[in-house]
Specification:
Layout (H helix, E strand, L loop, with lengths): L2 H32 L5 H10 L9 H24 L1
Length: 83
């Protein structure tokens, strides 16, 4: 089998898998993101980081969160490369 045919078959398989999975996964994500219910691990994480899940996040808080996440990610990646 040529690599071009293999690529086309792989693309068709990917499209078929996405077509089969989009409805159940989409319904699940809609339920999770629109629910007001928080599970115990989520509540614990909110308590540890000091977040209020009912409050809206303003842009300065969002900026701090993005920058902190980026800094931790860069440090983690650096440590992984050093090891």
């Amino acid at each position: 089998m040529s690599s071009q045919i293999a690529g086309v078959l792989q693309l068709i398989a990917l499209i078929a898998a996405l077509a089969l999975a989009y409805r159940p996964l989409g319904d699940y994500m809609a339920r999770v993101y629109s629910s007001e219910k928080h599970y115990k691990p989520e509540k614990w994480i909110y308590k540890v980081i000091g977040a209020d899940p009912a409050a809206e996040m303003r842009w300065p808080a969002y900026l701090r969160g993005v920058l902190a996440f980026s800094a931790v990610s860069v440090l983690f990646l650096y440590l992984m490369q050093r090891v």
